[in-house]
UniProtKB/TrEMBL annotation:
GO cellular component terms, semicolon-separated: membrane
UniProt-listed Enzyme Commission number(s): 2.4.1.182
Protein name: Lipid-A-disaccharide synthase
Source organism: Metapseudomonas resinovorans NBRC 106553
Family the entry assigns: Belongs to the LpxB family.
């Protein structure tokens, strides 16, 4: 059996690797081809080109990379049509993968899209392309499955692998001991994103907010997990001349979330991880001004962060674009160090709803689609 997968960023690499594990448990001799990161490659994926070439943030920012992306997609489609996999699985990266899926399905190859794009929030007409290009949509969240059912798209809610992997009660004391952090000091985790563009827009802002917090709470400490060596260098340059009790970590975002009391975090997949660790959070984000103006007109959802979308209410503060100032972020985080119970109770309810043994459910749905036992 040959299965093709394409993931475009770190979160997709994680999802792809756990899905591949579940598929191999059912068919040990399976062959994986496509595009993925180090986790998927560790599970046996032969990646045609580096996954990082697909990671682009924002509407305006993608324009400079468009020729390369279109060229890579064209060559990938040709290669996969020649290879004739039993099924193609596009993992997130909808602007890249939906076009691949459409071409492959027309060529007679079964297609699955894993992780719904935000069609329920904006660009809802994409659902027509999804319906034409996808034999099956696998969603991580229940509200997404309801949307697709209403639009006539074959869909299955599988839950989220992180909800399965992260314990319902994370051990803060053990995480602090592992990171050599004191038990009695308040700790705030700073997560300004995993991409260079995100850290460029949010890194200094988060460090400014940390300095404001330190003036409010002199004993406070900070941890900042760096997604890669490149991101660490980027943050180290921003730290020059600052006086902060801050530990930079290489990766270890889950350890940082388990150890902390509250989180200042970029909107994105990491907010789900903070939710699953039951750590109260403040969400911030900044985009290029033109990208933000375009999105503000297009987005139909009242919320941008996953915790609020899942709760269907304003559970966590969202400070977006000009509202995300150092003072505003510090003032929003500070009270959570004393009382974040409203958030954490809501997080627990969501965690239990998402705990569905997602990778096994996704693997079963894919094998059922292609008629494999």
């Amino acid at each position: 059996m040959r299965i093709a997968l394409v993931a475009g960023e770190a979160s997709g690499d994680i999802l792809g690797s756990t899905l591949m594990q579940a598929l191999k448990a059912r068919h040990p001799d399976i062959e994986f081809i496509g595009v993925g990161g180090p986790r998927m490659q560790a599970q046996g994926l032969d990646s045609y080109f580096p996954m990082e070439r697909l990671a682009v943030m924002g509407l305006v920012e993608v324009l400079g990379r468009l020729p390369e992306l279109l060229s890579r997609r064209k060559r990938l489609i040709q290669t996969l049509i020649e290879q004739r996999p039993d099924v193609f699985i596009g993992i997130d990266a909808p602007d890249f993968n939906l076009g691949v899926e459409l071409k492959l399905r027309r060529a007679g190859i079964k297609t699955v899209h894993y992780v719904s794009p935000s069609v329920w929030a904006w660009r809802q007409k994409r659902v027509l392309k999804i319906r034409e290009g996808c034999d099956l949509m696998l969603t991580l969240f229940p509200f997404e499955a309801r949307f697709y059912e209403e639009k006539g798209v074959p869909v299955r809610f599988v839950g989220h692998p992180l909800a399965d992997a992260i314990p319902l009660d994370a051990d803060r004391a053990a995480a602090r001991a592992a990171l050599d952090l004191p038990e009695d000091s308040p700790v705030v985790a700073l997560l300004p994103g995993s991409r260079g563009g995100e850290v460029g827009k949010l890194g200094a802002l988060f460090l400014d907010a940390a300095e404001r917090l330190r003036s409010i709470r002199p004993g406070i400490r900070f941890v900042l997990p760096c997604a890669s060596p490149e991101r660490r260098v980027q943050v180290e340059e921003m730290l020059a001349g600052r006086d902060l009790s801050l530990r930079l970590l290489d990766g270890q975002s889950h350890e940082a979330l388990a150890a902390c009391d509250a989180v200042l975090i970029a909107s994105g997949t990491a907010t789900l991880e903070a939710l699953l660790y039951k750590r109260p959070m403040v969400v911030a984000y900044k985009l290029a001004p033109l990208t933000y103006r375009i999105l503000r007109r297009l987005v139909k959802s009242p919320y941008v962060s996953l915790p609020n979308l899942l709760a269907q209410r304003l559970l966590v503060p969202e400070l977006i674009q000009d509202a995300a100032t150092p003072d505003a972020l510090a003032q929003a985080v500070s009270p959570l160090l004393d009382d974040g119970e409203v958030q954490t109770h809501g997080f627990d309810v969501i965690h239990r709803a998402l705990r569905q043994d997602a990778s096994s459910q996704a693997a079963d749905a894919i094998l059922q689609l292609i008629g494999a036992p």
